[in-house]
Amino acid sequence: MKIKEEVLLEKQGYRLHILPSKKYKTISIVAKFKTPLRREGITERALLPHVLQKATNNHPNVREFQSSFENLYGTVLSSDGTKKGENHVISFRMEVVNEAYLNDQEPILEEALKLFNEVLYAPKVEGEGFDSSIVEREKQTLEQKITSVKDDKMSYANMRLMDHMCKDEPYSLHVSGYQDDISSITPESLYNYYRSMIKNDLLDVYVIGDIDQTEIEKMTDKYFIRENSSNQDNDQVSTSKDVKEVNEVVEREEVNQGKLHIGYRTYTKFGDPDYYALQIFNGLFGGFPSSKLFMNVREKHSLAYYAASRFESHKGLLLVFSGVDPKDYKQAKSIILEQMDAMQNGDFTEEQVEETKEQVIHQLQETMDNANGIIEVLYHQMLSGAEMPVNDLIEHIRKVTKQDVVAMANKIKLDTIYFLTSLEGGE
Hints:
GO terms for molecular function: metal ion binding. By secondary structure, the chain is α+β, with helices and mostly antiparallel strands. It folds into 2 domains: about 5-225, 2-Layer Sandwich (Cytochrome Bc1 Complex, Chain A, domain 1), CATH 3.30.830; about 245-420, Cytochrome Bc1 Complex, Chain A, domain 1. Helices cover about 45% and strands about 25% of the residues. The protein has a 6-stranded mixed beta sheet with strand order 1-2-8-3-5-4, with helices on both faces. A 5-stranded mixed beta sheet has the order 9-13-10-12-11, sandwiched between helices. The radius of gyration is 23 Å and the shape is globular. About 40% of the residues are buried.
């Protein structure tokens, strides 16, 4: 399995990645803006994509703006904000039907790129700010989103774990923004932040589908122009603090099910030689239904409604998630920590290692079957400075040994234990 060669071109204010593939009947266009995570402006950054997706100068009201997408055979635009290590990435995604598969072959892609450019570079402006009614409406929506995090106790517990574990590190910042900031955001201040982002962020644009490189270059040169930007890399290197003592935090809310979330430092990021061992370690530890966490905490001892782990490959964190009865906190915590001890002692078989390698490879192949998945993998590699063909990634995974996994397990350090429990729950 190999992606057709990626074409990387330096354009006016952005890097253009062209990925020809006859596999898809739609064309995916993704624009990724990256800047270091900072407390200042983070709520504006969370709000901005929603404002940009409501109107442009050429389509000045919401209904007209939405109909412009419907007229392009249901072209879809979406956005999200994520952390990549200590960096904050906003992604705008557009999926367009490939006109080659239409009877009348209208210039859908060209019109879609033109509209995408309007969204990013010609938003609706009133005076020195965005449309005030749009900003106020989106501020209310964002505030509801921020306050509703508490309703999703799993997400809330993960957020609180990061608050404690990564205190004084940029990674603890909330990419969805802060409620306290919202009232002070004005159409003018948001527009000023937008102008700064457009000028200073590092921008990468991906186009993938059954496309012709020359035609894509012509269209992007015509419709996708970013002026007044040098597009210099602004990467903020992730920090990995030494763990001097384990931090244990118990917080109480009106909950029936406790959330036991545990954070470890792996001191390993994508691009490091032992990253592939970390992938296999996580699969064995808590990444799959056959893992130690699932089989022992949930199945054998019936102590958790769920128990799993995942790792943050740009920050060097391993996170454990489990939902437990408040009265079972101490026992569940003990058994979870025992699973890490077992991994460090090599209490797993060569056969389990081989099975996990196949599961990890299958997971990667599934990701690469999806256009957005391909883009995420390539962007992930580029940020890490460790770009390689997918077949090479698979080969690295296949070479991982049991000894490599044990060595990785012994590199991992427990940092923070966080338990969200009921008002009268156990401790």
